[in-house]
């Protein structure tokens, strides 16, 4: 006998999460609602906003203290409990050589977290450093996403020889360990000023860590984007647009790019977290932010020699990194879940 | 099978070539600066710079320069440091390998066992307080910079609590060769191992949990349950066994990268004289030949390790094997 | 004769992000020793869920199962996982729909079958392997001595489904639950596998619950039928009763969708217009009414149950109305 197969009765399966031109606001609104209902994501967002606000207040805080956190203050004094003490106290142990910077006063009026080995206010530097860390991470993330989207779009949409060449280059970059690439770029760029056309970038510029971090993570983002562009290129609405003879630029802007947006958004918190960690590592290795400028990584490095006597110099920036990166990671998970078309609990 | 291996080796060779070209371009063809002066290091005499320009062929076309670089790295292996006058670079790199291997190997044992425990426990107790607690701890482990974690560990074990029973056994910072003293080697490395492993336990634990949960939605897990197997057996023999394949790939990549120098932050914090610390000192002194050598050797090692993992993968996974 | 499996007033509710969704409403059925009960319905009608929830094979944390069920007179719903484990595989075995995914990809099929035997019986590794080879021979897998050491991906879909059936039969279960056992197979293989399933279940003395959407398979295999729609059994009876005198308009639709055995094949098989209601539906009336060609205003009330012996249906239509609306099919 012949056996009819299921489709006779069942309605054609309707793929719930089929790609469609992102016209309606529906999916975005759903994602936003899911995100808003996620309590840990909201807490993380609050933490991030608080960190950003605090670092923005850095100049105001320094101005209020009336100090310059970038100038050493080896001979200065500070008043604690009505007593004047030197910022750099002569050592009382051992041979009596060397000096120990003033410890945390836990008084926001000055040296809240103590001084570093140049007598500078650690709390003020922490805010300035945080501003640099966040600016570098934010700019590197934007740079990386722009580059990766461009590469992914061009490779995935053009196909052919362009795709082959770009993909091979991405393969090489992908296989090149991130930190080795970062070290190579940093050391070469730091040893001499670097000129592109009329622009000269000096060794101390924040543009160096931004550029380096922005570039090294490109393959991680470009590969998934390219893969998605490849599938979109074959999707019916793009084929239809091509069939209608619409200009490529318009198809890319109206049909392809909007569908890449969820992927790109998912990468934002992940890249920010990676960039903050990478920046701090590079700065710790003294190939990131250059003195007298500060970042959380350079302050940890400053604190290393004072670790046993004045641990807060190194502890505070580390805690700031942990809190920020943790919040970004939690938020990243939540954003991914919120945008996940598969949903939860069927 | 053989075709897979050959194809993978060809790809490996291509990637190695690509990386060497990239490194060459970064080190020797960055616009707007003189590579000879850079290699000579700070305060080098004009004669030294001129000598270097000649030795590396910087007065000749780029392809020749590339060939000279590769020859000095892999054939004659006579690259010398100019900061530490005349110190041969390649033997220095090779001498640093045992310390790095000791650090990474021990940490790898810890992180594999740790992440298996975390991943399996979290997946088995999914959505309970234990699961949530483990996942938060993992995220904290992922979020803490390893060099900072190392400083905290040093602060506790070398200074604040060094005189208590908890940490009185901890020796001063530094590496003790295995050949010198087994117990000394072990004691010197325990805290670095734990510090380095924390990050990877976090990453692997989370990945394993996700893979296990995905495996649990598969039909074959329902089949296994319908067979009347015990939950332990289903978890270990069916879910975990299939989830291990991506786990092994990740492990190969990370282990390769760490041995190739990614452990440098840990080495620096704990004063372990491995490849990473060698690179670090070269960075401090702007000693380019050393960095050139470590970068090329390490990235080649990592690429080779990745290829090896892919081949091993084909051996382990019956689906790929055919 | 007391039934082997007796399910009464089964109700299964899933908790989802959008609130609870009831997939099975007040379902009752019984399986007698030695019989083949076919449970028929569209995908999503709750036919698999009904059986899997009795076996405790649904996600316990997201599912509420209410009602009563006994197996060999002993309650089975609400048993601990540990107690259920002793029943699963030994007394009640499951054959899954998709042989491509039903076997663990990284283990040899022989090991997977022997694993089940050794989970329930104290036999040596060697004896379990011998039994596995014999089982594979019974399900007509060529060269069973070699096939035991094959991995699932090395076998074709039909061969894998045979292996799954061999595994299900390995402990001589009293009840086989076959969840769309041939849906994923090629048409030519389907008939062979069904034949074999019928022969072996008889040989092993196993009752069968056959979950399917295919009335052709029902005619071929079953002794009794339960037709499910939107989480309810809308009609149940012997195969003869249902095929000769179907009461529920939904059953009519199912029967009309079987291609005729002789005569010219229609250009297009008739199908039921419309779609099943969404799972979260709360209206009290007959769930089939929106698609029913005999729907009346009264169908907005809960449908009454009509009973004649073992033949039952949830429908308001009486015999004369049915006869008027659906002329009996002329036997070919």
UniProtKB/TrEMBL annotation, chain A:
GO biological process, any: protein transport
An annotated GO cellular component: plasma membrane
Topological category with respect to the lipid bilayer: Multi-pass membrane protein
Family annotation (PROSITE patterns): ABC_TM1
Keyword Protein transport: yes
SUPFAM superfamilies noted in UniProt: MetI-like (SSF161098)
Compartments, as annotated in UniProt: Cell membrane
Coiled-coil parts of chain: none
Annotated TM spans: 42-64, 134-157, 169-190, 196-218, 256-276, 312-332
Protein name: Dipeptide transport system permease protein DppC
Automatic annotation (TrEMBL), chain B:
Sequence ranges assigned to domain ABC transmembrane type-1 in this UniProt record: 97-313
Superkingdom per UniProt: Bacteria
Classification via Pfam families: BPD_transp_1, BPD_transp_1_N
Keyword set includes Cell membrane: yes
Transmembrane segments: 12-30, 101-125, 132-150, 184-203, 244-270, 290-316
Membrane protein topology class: Multi-pass membrane protein
GO cellular component: plasma membrane
Localization per Swiss-Prot or TrEMBL: Cell membrane
Keywords per UniProt: Cell membrane, Membrane, Transmembrane, Transmembrane helix, Transport
Family annotation (InterPro entries): BPD_transp_1_N, MetI-like, MetI-like_sf
Biological process according to GO: transmembrane transport
Similarity field: Belongs to the binding-protein-dependent transport system permease family.
Protein's name according to its UniProt entry: Permease of oligopeptide ABC transporter
Automatic annotation (TrEMBL), chain C:
Pfam entry (one): ABC_tran
Domain ABC transporter: 7-255
Gene3D superfamilies noted in UniProt: P-loop containing nucleotide triphosphate hydrolases
Keyword line: ATP-binding, Cell membrane, Membrane, Nucleotide-binding, Transport
Any GO molecular function: ATP binding
Statement: the UniProt record of this protein carries the keyword Membrane: yes
Keyword Translocase: no
InterPro entries registered for this protein in UniProt: AAA+_ATPase, ABC_Ni/Peptide_Import, ABC_transporter-like_ATP-bd, ABC_transporter-like_CS, Oligopep_ABC_C, P-loop_NTPase
Subcellular compartments: Cell inner membrane
SMART domains: AAA (SM00382)
Primary residence: membrane
One term under GO cellular component: plasma membrane
Similarity field: Belongs to the ABC transporter superfamily.
Name recorded for this polypeptide: Oligopeptide transport ATP-binding protein OppD
Source organism per UniProt: Rubellimicrobium mesophilum DSM 19309
């Amino acid at each position: 006998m012949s056996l009819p197969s299921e489709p006779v009765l069942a309605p054609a399966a309707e793929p719930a999460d089929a790609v469609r031109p992102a016209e309606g606001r529906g999916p975005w609104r759903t994602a936003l609602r899911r995100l808003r209902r996620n309590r840990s994501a909201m807490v993380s967002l609050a933490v991030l906003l608080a960190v950003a606000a605090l670092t923005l207040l850095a100049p105001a805080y320094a101005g209020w203290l009336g100090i310059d956190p970038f100038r050493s203050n080896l001979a200065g004094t500070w008043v604690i409990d009505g007593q004047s003490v030197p910022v750099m106290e002569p050592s009382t142990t051992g041979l009596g050589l060397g000096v120990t910077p003033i410890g945390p006063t836990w008084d926001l009026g000055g040296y809240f977290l103590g001084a570093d080995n140049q007598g500078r206010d650690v709390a003020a530097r922490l805010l300035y450093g945080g501003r640099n860390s966040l600016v570098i991470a934010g700019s590197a993330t934007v740079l990386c996403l722009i580059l990766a989207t461009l590469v992914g779009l061009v490779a995935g949409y053009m196909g052919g020889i362009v795709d082959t060449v770009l993909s091979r280059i991405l393969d090489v970059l992908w296989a090149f360990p991130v930190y080795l690439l970062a070290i190579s770029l940093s050391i070469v760029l730091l040893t001499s000023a670097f000129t592109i056309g009329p622009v000269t970038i000096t060794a101390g510029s924040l543009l160096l860590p931004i550029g380096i971090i922005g570039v090294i993570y490109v393959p991680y983002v470009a590969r998934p984007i390219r893969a998605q562009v490849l599938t979109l290129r074959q999707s019916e609405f793009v084929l239809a647009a091509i069939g209608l003879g619409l200009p490529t630029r318009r198809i890319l802007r109206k049909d392809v790019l909007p569908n890449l947006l969820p992927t790109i958004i998912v990468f934002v918190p992940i890249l920010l977290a990676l960039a903050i960690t990478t920046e701090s590592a590079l700065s710790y290795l003294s190939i990131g932010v250059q003195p007298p400028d500060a970042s959380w990584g350079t302050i940890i490095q400053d604190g290393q020699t004072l670790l046993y006597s004045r641990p807060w110099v190194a502890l505070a920036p580390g805690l700031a990194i942990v809190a920020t990166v943790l919040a970004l990671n939690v938020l990243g998970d939540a954003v991914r879940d919120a945008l996940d078309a598969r949903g939860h609990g069927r | 099978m053989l075709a897979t291996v050959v194809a993978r080796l060809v790809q490996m060779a291509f990637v190695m070539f690509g990386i060497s070209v990239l490194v060459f371009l970064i080190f020797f063809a960055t616009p707007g600066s003189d590579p000879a002066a850079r290699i000579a290091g700070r305060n080098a005499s004009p004669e030294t710079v001129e000598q270097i320009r000649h030795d590396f062929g910087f007065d000749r076309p780029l392809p020749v320069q590339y060939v000279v670089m590769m020859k000095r790295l892999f054939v004659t292996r006579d690259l010398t440091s100019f900061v530490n006058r005349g110190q041969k670079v390649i033997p220095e790199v090779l001498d640093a390998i045992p310390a790095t291997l000791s650090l990474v190997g021990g940490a790898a044992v810890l992180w594999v066992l740790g992440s298996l425990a975390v991943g399996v426990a979290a997946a088995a107790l999914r959505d309970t307080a234990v699961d949530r607690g483990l996942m938060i701890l993992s995220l904290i482990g992922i979020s803490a910079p390893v060099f900072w974690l190392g400083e905290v560990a040093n602060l506790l074990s070398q200074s604040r609590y060094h005189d208590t029973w908890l940490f009185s056994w901890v020796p001063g910072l530094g590496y003790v060769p295995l050949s010198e003293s087994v117990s000394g080697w072990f004691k010197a490395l325990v805290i670095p191992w734990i510090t380095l492993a924390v990050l990877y336990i976090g990453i692997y634990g989370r990945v394993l949990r996700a893979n296990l949960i995905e495996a649990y939605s598969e039909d074959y897990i329902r089949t296994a349950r319908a067979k009347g197997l015990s939950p332990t057996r289903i978890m270990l023999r069916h879910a975990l066994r299939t989830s291990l394949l991506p786990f092994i790939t990740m492990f190969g990549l990370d282990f390769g990268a760490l041995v190739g120098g990614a452990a440098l932050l840990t080495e620096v914090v704990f004063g372990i004289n491995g490849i990473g610390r060698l690179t670090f000192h070269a960075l401090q002194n702007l000693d380019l030949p050393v960095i050139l050598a470590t970068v090329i050797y390490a990235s080649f090692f990592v690429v080779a390790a990745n290829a090896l993992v892919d081949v091993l993968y084909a051996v382990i996974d019956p689906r790929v094997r055919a | 004769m007391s039934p082997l499996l007796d399910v009464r007033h089964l109700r299964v509710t899933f908790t989802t992000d959008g609130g609870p969704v009831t997939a099975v409403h007040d379902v009752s059925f019984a399986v007698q020793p030695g019989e083949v009960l076919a449970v028929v319905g569209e995908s999503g009608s709750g036919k698999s869920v009904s059986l899997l929830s009795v076996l405790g094979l649904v996600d316990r944390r997201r599912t509420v199962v209410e009602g009563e069920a006994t197996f060999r007179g002993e309650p089975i719903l609400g048993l601990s996982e540990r107690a259920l484990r002793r029943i699963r595989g030994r007394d009640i075995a499951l054959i899954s729909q998709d042989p491509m995914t039903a076997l663990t990809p990284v283990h040899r099929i022989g090991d997977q079958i022997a694993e089940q035997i050794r989970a329930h019986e104290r036999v040596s590794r060697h004896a379990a392997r011998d039994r596995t080879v014999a089982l594979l021979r019974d399900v007509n897998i060529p060269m069973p001595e070699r096939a035991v050491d094959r991995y699932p991906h090395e076998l074709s879909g039909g061969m894998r489904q045979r292996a799954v059936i061999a595994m299900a039969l390995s402990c001589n279960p009293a009840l086989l639950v076959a969840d769309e056992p041939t849906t994923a197979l090629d048409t030519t293989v389907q008939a062979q596998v069904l034949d074999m399933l019928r022969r072996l279940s008889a040989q092993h003395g196993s009752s069968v619950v056959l979950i399917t959407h295919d009335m052709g398979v029902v005619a071929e295999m079953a002794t009794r039928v339960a037709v499910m729609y939107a989480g309810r059994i809308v009609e149940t009876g012997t195969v003869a009763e249902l095929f000769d005198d179907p009461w529920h308009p939904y059953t009519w639709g199912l029967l009309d969708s079987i291609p005729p055995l002789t005569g010219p094949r229609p250009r297009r098989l008739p199908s039921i217009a419309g779609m099943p209601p969404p799972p979260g539906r709360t209206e009290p009336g007959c769930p089939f009414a929106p698609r029913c060609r005999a729907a009346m205003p009264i169908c907005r009330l809960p449908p009454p149950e009509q009973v004649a012996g073992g033949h039952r249906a949830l429908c308001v239509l009486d015999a004369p109305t049915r006869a008027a609306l659906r002329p009996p099919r002329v036997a070919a």
